[in-house]
Amino acid sequence: MLLEKAQSLRDSLQNFQRLRENADEAKSFETRATQFNTVSASLASQCARLKALTAAGVRVPFTPKNAADLRKKAIALRSGFNADPKALDEVDYNLKYDFLDRLSGITKAIGESLLVSWQQHVAENSPVFADDLIAALATIPDYQAPVARIRECRNTLAGLARTLPADFTVALAQLNAAREAYTVAWDTMTAGGLPEAVIRFLKACGQDGASLELLDDTVLKWLSDRKLSHVFRIRVKGSR
What we know:
The protein has 240 residues and is mostly helical. The protein has 2 domains: 7-124, no CATH class; 131-231, no CATH class. 71% of the residues lie in helices and 0% in strands. It is built from 8 helices and no strands. α1 packs parallel to α3, α4 (131-138) runs antiparallel to α5 (144-162) and α5 (144-162) runs antiparallel to α6 (168-190). It is rod-shaped, with a radius of gyration of 34 Å. The N and C termini lie far apart (118 Å).
């Protein structure tokens, strides 16, 4: 009777040990699955964005680091896992550091390349904003509305370049719309061109005031053609 109880206890302990080992093994697999799913989902998402931005016509120069080695590891891991799930714990390298962390690094690098390429695209397709000239034009009452539109366009473009958009198609449409709105507003103020003499005059007016030497025939004609002569007054420097 005592021997039977001892054997029964031994069997129970062995069964408990097997159950605990199975539980530990299951927990290990669950941890691995979570790690792989997280890394895989992030990488897939960034690759999809890379493909979308490229398809939208924005060049994204990117070459993943150690891609050949990681691809080789991925193939070997999948093959080993299909043969025996325990193979994941038997690789001769640190699975997290030498594989998962490397994939996370590629994911991060893709994101950085996407942002740089997007910002460069926005900059290359944005008008050059001469703040001092725009400020000078803003002093002319008839031009305050188009100047406001130009500043709005500038804010829109700055906002687009600040972060990587969620939808590149929508963002590109906003970029084109802002650029077109800027062109319309600028042409409203500078139809027929903006001579260098006029630019110098307006910039000076927007600062400490323009000297009489800057009010030459070219400037007078430009103001007269646009019926803007009444906007300006001549005052002695230092007077109100």
